[in-house]
Amino acid sequence: MTLPGAPHLARRGRDLYLEDCQLATLAQQHGTPLYVYSQASMLDALAAYQRALAGRPHLICYAMKANSSLAVLQTFARAGCGFDIVSGGELQRVLAAGASASKVVFSGVGKTRTEMRQALEAGVRCFNVESESELALLSQVAVELGVRAPVSLRVNPDVDAGTHPYISTGLKGNKFGIAHEQALAVYRHAAQLPGIAVRGIDCHIGSQLTEVAPFLDALDRILDLVEAIEAAGITLHHLDLGGGLGITYTDETPPSADELIAQLLARIDARGHGHREIVFEPGRSLVGNAGVLLTEVLYLKPGETKNFCIVDAAMNDLMRPAMYEAWMGIVPCTERDAPAVTWDVVGPVCESGDWLGRERELAVAPGDHLAILSAGAYGMAMASNYNTRGRAAEVMVRGHQATLIRRRESAAELYANERLID
Ligand SMILES: *Cc1c(COP(=O)(O)O)cnc(C)c1O
């Protein structure tokens, strides 16, 4: 039996397996909290995008902020994938994983002069510029280096993505992108700047989108602009349609990447833009369902109004529930014969917001291992050291093979950069 949204996660008898690796065994071998990823799941998710775009110029740029562990980046780089970065740190990281800068696009509202210089020196494919002042600074930095910066403007199409306000980015009043009404004027300005080479247009309207309609709305708004910009004599080579495709955490039914792209391409062709290179920047949909977070039950604390199941993973390991009130599946690694009880699954961190799941029916005992599902995206990447907790270890599985791709952080490493005063 496979679990929702995660084709490589299945129960065999009482035991949960990711590919051919038994999760309870991995938890014992490596300790908990432990992130475990299926490489096949990541490659399958990428293949769906690649298949849908086969036969036309395209580049898939994995939005690496979703999970930037080196072995994850290496997996995608070897499969021919490009990358969407949002900082100089991400640039260094992705190059260390073996990626080519020529397949990197650089997004983000607050690029610094130093980051711009690093990215120009590395030779990134494109900067997704989010404001007029950023454009001016980028031109200046490029001129100083004697180059032209390849640029797309990130346009805010003002469409409602119908997702959580913290992960919605394409509405007016949002910090991201250049307003649709101003975009043509900013393109005209960009075309005059000595350090800028206009390459394309970009948008990204939000995250965990589960409908096709907002993507199509945004596309129409972008194509209207493309037509106006080209009528003004400025050539655009590529259309970057961002990321944002959702995954199944509970009962969501997002379109598959194939379905979404087929509909977008049909619209692009119908409007006569089929010759353009298409770029996508998927993050969550490439890695989210590929990962689980394993945790051990420390204590059971039944109460009058609530029962608490206290586990060794916490909000510092997995922020999504505390930050977005996100619902994530929680299941035992090994099922036991006992009646289920309703538990709030909480971590050891000293915050009431430190919960991983509320009101979950589970048959558990101290020492059992639980798997938190769909934890491959915005899990480890958002982990912190709050409460001087070292970040979790990570394992990548490939069939029967399990490889430790990051060892657990020690407490001494956490204060290694600190100094006592005299
Ligand atoms: C975060 C982000 C993405 C990826 O979003 P997902 O929802 O993870 O697919 C793509 N592009 C930009 C500019 C982003 O900030």
UniProtKB/TrEMBL annotation:
<dbReference type="InterPro" id="IPR009006">
    <property type="entry name" value="Ala_racemase/Decarboxylase_C"/>
</dbReference>
<feature type="binding site">
    <location>
        <position position="320"/>
    </location>
    <ligand>
        <name>substrate</name>
    </ligand>
</feature>
<keyword id="KW-0028">Amino-acid biosynthesis</keyword>
<feature type="active site" description="Proton donor">
    <location>
        <position position="350"/>
    </location>
</feature>
<comment type="similarity">
    <text>Belongs to the Orn/Lys/Arg decarboxylase class-II family. LysA subfamily.</text>
</comment>
<keyword id="KW-0663">Pyridoxal phosphate</keyword>
<feature type="domain" description="Orn/DAP/Arg decarboxylase 2 N-terminal">
    <location>
        <begin position="44"/>
        <end position="287"/>
    </location>
</feature>
<keyword id="KW-0457">Lysine biosynthesis</keyword>
<feature type="modified residue" description="N6-(pyridoxal phosphate)lysine">
    <location>
        <position position="65"/>
    </location>
</feature>
<comment type="pathway">
    <text>Amino-acid biosynthesis; L-lysine biosynthesis via DAP pathway; L-lysine from DL-2,6-diaminopimelate: step 1/1.</text>
</comment>
<dbReference type="Pfam" id="PF00278">
    <property type="entry name" value="Orn_DAP_Arg_deC"/>
</dbReference>
<feature type="binding site">
    <location>
        <position position="378"/>
    </location>
    <ligand>
        <name>pyridoxal 5'-phosphate</name>
    </ligand>
</feature>
<dbReference type="InterPro" id="IPR022657">
    <property type="entry name" value="De-COase2_CS"/>
</dbReference>
<comment type="function">
    <text>Specifically catalyzes the decarboxylation of meso-diaminopimelate (meso-DAP) to L-lysine.</text>
</comment>
<dbReference type="InterPro" id="IPR029066">
    <property type="entry name" value="PLP-binding_barrel"/>
</dbReference>
<dbReference type="InterPro" id="IPR022643">
    <property type="entry name" value="De-COase2_C"/>
</dbReference>
<protein>
    <recommendedName>
        <fullName>Diaminopimelate decarboxylase</fullName>
        <ecNumber>4.1.1.20</ecNumber>
    </recommendedName>
</protein>
<dbReference type="GO" id="GO:0008836">
    <property type="term" value="F:diaminopimelate decarboxylase activity"/>
</dbReference>
<comment type="subunit">
    <text>Homodimer.</text>
</comment>
<dbReference type="Pfam" id="PF02784">
    <property type="entry name" value="Orn_Arg_deC_N"/>
</dbReference>
<dbReference type="GO" id="GO:0030170">
    <property type="term" value="F:pyridoxal phosphate binding"/>
</dbReference>
<feature type="domain" description="Orn/DAP/Arg decarboxylase 2 C-terminal">
    <location>
        <begin position="35"/>
        <end position="376"/>
    </location>
</feature>
<dbReference type="InterPro" id="IPR000183">
    <property type="entry name" value="Orn/DAP/Arg_de-COase"/>
</dbReference>
<feature type="binding site">
    <location>
        <position position="324"/>
    </location>
    <ligand>
        <name>substrate</name>
    </ligand>
</feature>
<feature type="binding site">
    <location>
        <position position="284"/>
    </location>
    <ligand>
        <name>substrate</name>
    </ligand>
</feature>
<feature type="binding site">
    <location>
        <position position="378"/>
    </location>
    <ligand>
        <name>substrate</name>
    </ligand>
</feature>
<dbReference type="InterPro" id="IPR022644">
    <property type="entry name" value="De-COase2_N"/>
</dbReference>
<feature type="binding site">
    <location>
        <position position="244"/>
    </location>
    <ligand>
        <name>pyridoxal 5'-phosphate</name>
    </ligand>
</feature>
<feature type="binding site">
    <location>
        <begin position="281"/>
        <end position="284"/>
    </location>
    <ligand>
        <name>pyridoxal 5'-phosphate</name>
    </ligand>
</feature>
<keyword id="KW-0210">Decarboxylase</keyword>
<dbReference type="GO" id="GO:0009089">
    <property type="term" value="P:lysine biosynthetic process via diaminopimelate"/>
</dbReference>
<feature type="binding site">
    <location>
        <position position="351"/>
    </location>
    <ligand>
        <name>substrate</name>
    </ligand>
</feature>
<keyword id="KW-0456">Lyase</keyword>
<dbReference type="InterPro" id="IPR002986">
    <property type="entry name" value="DAP_deCOOHase_LysA"/>
</dbReference>
